[in-house]
Design brief:
globular; SH3 type barrels; 8 helices; 384 residues; alpha/beta; 24% helix; 5-stranded parallel sheet; Rossmann fold
Length: 384
C-alpha cells in the first residue's frame, strides 16, 4: 500500500509513523509548511517542528519532504477566519485547515499519488461491513438506521476514539467523503497515555514534547494581536444584559466570542459574553456562573454536511449525540429535520439538547453523532 504520512513534529504523528513501521509499512513522510515567510509577525515558528520531523525520518530511514502550502493556507483558511470574525461569528480554523489544507491542498499537490493519507488524529476509520455488528453480534445503531432506509453500510465511516479528552472527530467532521475514504488513523484505538508510553519506549525524539495549543497557523502569535492586524480596533461599550448598565469598554466585537469569560478586563467577575450587537459594536455580558442568560438548549445548523452518508429519513425527529466545542463533552438531544424546499434545498436541521449548554456561539461547528456516540454523521455551523 502506498502511504503518505503527515508529520507535525509532535508526539502523535511520530507514534503513527512508528506503528506503521511495526506493521511492515513504509510511508513517505511530509511536513506541511503554512507560516508566512518574510513577515516576522505572521511566521509560524516551525524550526523545532521540522527538526523533530527530520529526527523521526532519520530514525526509520524514511524520506521526508516539506510541502509549502503557505499561499493556499492564507487564501483559504485565513480568509475564512477573518470573514467570520468580521461578521461577528466564531470560526474554527483547525476544522477548515483539515478540510482545505491537510486533506485538500495537500491532496491536490501530493496526496493524489497515494492510496492512503495517514495522520496522528485521534479518531477511527470503520470501513464497509465492520459497522454492521458489535463484538457481541448485535446490530449497531448506524447499521439499523441504514437498513431502515434500504441502504448498505458501504464506504468509510468516522468513529470516535476511546479517549474522550483527545477524540478529534469534531476536527475531521467537515471532510469530504472522498477524503474520508483515503484517511488512515493509526492512533484511533489508543489513549493519549498509551501514545506517550509508546513514544518513550521507542525513544522517539518528540516523546516528551508538549502538545501544541491554539490555532494551527499562529504559532506563538497572540490571537488578539493577529486579529488586530487585520481588523484594527474600534472602541465600544460593554453592557450588563440584565440591567442595561455600562460596565466597561472593549476594543472591537471581533475580539470576543459568545461564552467568553477571560480577557474581558472587568472587575468583580466572573463575567460572560452573552450577546454581540454587530451594527452598534456593543458587547453584552452577564455576571455569575449560574445566570440563565449564559445558557441555551436549542440552535439551528446551517448547511449540514454529511461525512459519508445520510442515515436518516429526509424529515423527522431523531435522537442524537452532539458537540458544540472541542473541549466540551458529548451531549444528548434530538435533531429535527424538515423536508427540502425551494428556499432550503437540503431541508433544515435543528438541535434541541436535553441539558442547558453554556455559550452557544454562531459560527462554531455543531458536530452530530449517532445516539450511542460511536459514529460521526457530520457537522454544520451553528446559526441564529
Amino acid at each position: 500500500m502506498n502511504i503518505a504520512l503527515l508529520l507535525s513534529g509532535g508526539v502523535d504523528s511520530a507514534v503513527a509513523c512508528h506503528l506503521l513501521m511495526e506493521q511492515g509499512l513504509k510511508p513517505d513522510l511530509f511536513y506541511i509548511k503554512i507560516g508566512m515567510d518574510g513577515d516576522d509577525d505572521l511566521t509560524c515558528t516551525a524550526e523545532e517542528d521540522l527538526e523533530m520531523c527530520h529526527a523521526v525520518a532519520h530514525r526509520y530511514g524514511l524520506p521526508l519532504e516539506m510541502v509549502d502550502l503557505q499561499k493556499e493556507y492564507w487564501e483559504r483558511v485565513v480568509t475564512y477566519t477573518m470573514d467570520h470574525v468580521r461578521r461577528g461569528l466564531t470560526p474554527n480554523p483547525d476544522v477548515m485547515c483539515n478540510r482545505l489544507i491537510k486533506f485538500g491542498a495537500f491532496e491536490e499537490r501530493v496526496g493524489r499519488h497515494y492510496d492512503r493519507l495517514c495522520t496522528g488524529h485521534y479518531a477511527r476509520c470503520v470501513r464497509n461491513g465492520e459497522i454492521f455488528c458489535t463484538p457481541a453480534g448485535e446490530e449497531t445503531e448506524l447499521a439499523a438506521l441504514l437498513r431502515a432506509k434500504g441502504l448498505e453500510a458501504e464506504g468509510t465511516w468516522l468513529a470516535t476514539a476511546p479517549d474522550p479528552v483527545k477524540d478529534q472527530t469534531d476536527f475531521l467532521a467537515q471532510l469530504e467523503r472522498s477524503q474520508v475514504e483515503k484517511v488512515m488513523l493509526p492512533l484511533g484505538h489508543l489513549m493519549k497515555d498509551d501514545v506517550r508510553r509508546i513514544a518513550v519506549d521507542a525513544r522517539l525524539a518528540p516523546a516528551r514534547r508538549k502538545d501544541s495549543q491554539g490555532i494551527c497557523f499562529l504559532g506563538k502569535i497572540n490571537y488578539a494581536d493577529f486579529v488586530k492586524r487585520f481588523l484594527g480596533t474600534r472602541k465600544g461599550d460593554v453592557i450588563e444584559m440584565e440591567t442595561g448598565r455600562r460596565v466597561g469598554e472593549h476594543q472591537g466585537y471581533w475580539f470576543h466570542t459568545i461564552g467568553q469569560r477571560k480577557g474581558l478586563g472587568l472587575g468583580g467577575g466572573p463575567w460572560f459574553v452573552v450577546r454581540k450587537d454587530i451594527e452598534q459594536n456593543v458587547l453584552y455580558v452577564s455576571h455569575g456562573y449560574d445566570n440563565l442568560l449564559q445558557y441555551g438548549r436549542s440552535f439551528n445548523i446551517a448547511a449540514f454536511h454529511f461525512l459519508t452518508g445520510d442515515p436518516w429519513p429526509e424529515e423527522g425527529c431523531f435522537d442524537v449525540t452532539f458537540k458544540v466545542r472541542h473541549t466540551d463533552r458529548w451531549r444528548t438531544g434530538r435533531l429535527t429535520r424538515t423536508a427540502p424546499t425551494d428556499g432550503h434545498p437540503q431541508g433544515t436541521f435543528h438541535i434541541d439538547g436535553d441539558d442547558p449548554i453554556q455559550g452557544i456561539a454562531p459560527g462554531q461547528f455543531a458536530v452530530v453523532y449517532t445516539r450511542d456516540g460511536h459514529i460521526c454523521i457530520g457537522s454544520g455551523e451553528i446559526a441564529v
